Amino acid sequence: MNDKEKKPGNPWTKSLLIWVGVLFALVLFVQMIDGGSRATAGNLIPYSEFVRQVDEQNVRTVTMSTSTTGNSAITGKFASGETFRTVAPAGSNVADRMIQKGVAVQVKAEETGSIWLYMLYNSLPFLLILGISFFVMRQMQKNAGSGAMGFGKSRARMLTEKQGRVTFADVAGIDEAREELQEIVEYLKDPGKFARLGGKIPKGALLVGSPGTGKTLLARAIAGEAGVPFFTISGSDFVEMFVGVGASRVRDMFDQAKKSAPCIVFIDEIDAVGRHRGAGLGNGNDEREQTLNQLLVEMDGFEANEGIIIIAATNRPDVLDPALLRPGRFDRQVVVPRPDIDGREQILAVHMKKVPLAPDVDPRVIARGTPGFSGADLANLVNEAALLAARRGKRLVAMKEFEEAKDKVMMGTERKSMVMTEDEKRMTAYHEAGHAIVAVHEAASDPIHKATIIPRGRALGLVMRLPERDNYSYHRDKMYANLSVSMGGRVAEELIFGYDKVSSGASSDISYATGLARDMVTRWGMSDLLGPLQYADADEEVFLGYSVNRQRQMSDETARTIDKEIRRIVDEGYERAKHLLTENREELEALAKALLEYETLSGDEIKKVLAGETIDRGGAKGPSIPAAGSSIPKAKRPKPGAIGGPATAGA
Known about the structure:
Layout: H1 3-6, H2 10-39, E1 43-44, H3 47-55, E2 59-66, E3 72-78, E4 83-88, H4 94-100, E5 104-108, H5 115-140, E6 157-159, H6 175-189, H7 191-195, E7 204-208, H8 215-226, E8 230-234, H9 245-259, E9 263-268, H10 287-299, E10 308-314, H11 322-325, E11 332-335, H12 341-352, H13 363-368, H14 375-391, H15 399-411, H16 422-441, E12 448-452, E13 462-465, H17 476-497, H18 507-522, E14 540-543, E15 546-549, H19 556-583, H20 585-598, E16 600-602, H21 603-610, E17 642-644
Parallel strand pairs: 1-4, 2-5, 7-10, 7-11, 8-9, 9-10
Antiparallel strand pairs: 2-3, 3-4, 6-8, 12-13, 12-16, 13-17, 14-15
């Protein structure tokens, strides 16, 4: 083990030695005091009483010691065994008197100790107090706020290569953001290149993006490429319950950074401390605002912090204070988006390097089937596939494991412990078949990827549709197609089982259709009656640190018109689904029977069923169908893709 590896243990060893020394000094002090008290043990009696006891021959033994003043210290025992002590005045002939009375007298010579020992004995209490005070002061001066009074110390940690060096080779799928930050790396490597032309590097870069898109990874890659110290801290680490602590930590953080310049300071989740000022009650001079004010001054105040580049990350740029985003502080806002299909393929390739893959694994196919996935989602997908292959005792991760891992991440885990009745199975099969048939006959609908009646997560069954390419906007015809597909399950139940047997399984479908129709009317101007106007404001106010939605004020007549338009659009989707399922009743029956038999059908297998072809699986059937649950919640469907199945009443 080298010296660097031993270094982390030294502070603990020093603290232990200090405490052992303090305890040893305490024990020594107590023993010295206790030893002195034992040396003068016995009851103190007057000299006259001692003389009387000698005359009455009640004294058995005596020990005398004479001091430099001539007085004699006398200790001894009575005939009864009781000890005593007294002091005889100088010039008294008490020794001869005791010998005449038959007392055993022992004379102890005066001990002249060392003057240094005498001084040590008398100064030991003061030395002990000074030692304890010194130890407490050292604890107070420890950095990182770990000492007794270290609240104002910065909690920023400096990452080193020993903790894992990250470069741009480890960052994939966000090429534009990476290229924009490449300039910072070049400046840190060669500052003179920009100074010769009078250019100044941006003092700060704000990384904006959804959770899991790789903002922190990108910041670490900048430090890894530039080879400079990298300090990391969270926005919540600045603010404490004590007033002024946050501002003190900001000052201390910049003091540490100046000593290591050029360097990078990364503040994660800066919205915890950088929100709009003046949003609180009273004068707004709270601890968080003091911290923000100090951060603003340190970034661009009277003193220039050359060589310190601040990189911050947030997914809420709308709540940040405008002074934080002006030139001279966070000069650039780098958007870190969710990757497209090419980016997802690159990210999968990075994460698959550590996984032994089977020859049939195609990252392009997996990337196509994971629209909207962030980098963290894709890393989780690869990890789930590896865990699944390990549970099965395989040495390679095959495409089958990736497909099942994708289903688990997107739709939830199979609920094999539930047992459904035959009626519930049949209801679920027709419900999902209704979604699938409408999706097949709607030209603007996305292709069907999979249909299943095996419960996953909170759904009894679902139909998953995947787009052929990444979509960044939706057209009117696609929205109407999605509305009719969402109504397909409810219409199928009504056609097959009758009006009175319609279940509550379409709750999530109705919620999705209503929300989509409301957005079409109030946000996207797709109502001919109301025109291209926005009736729902997306503005937000920050009050006491929380975002408050403001709904636009409108007249009662306008509100009633909006409700009528929403009802009309949803009814049109319902009627469209009813028309398609009525015309294709035979396809609905055939697909429902196939779902009851195979439980899960791929998009190609659904096409074979509708074409009247047989499905060849070597006679193998899927697992048994579990029990009733609830439909897919709204949060599970950020995009119109998966359509949920029937649920229990009251879900």
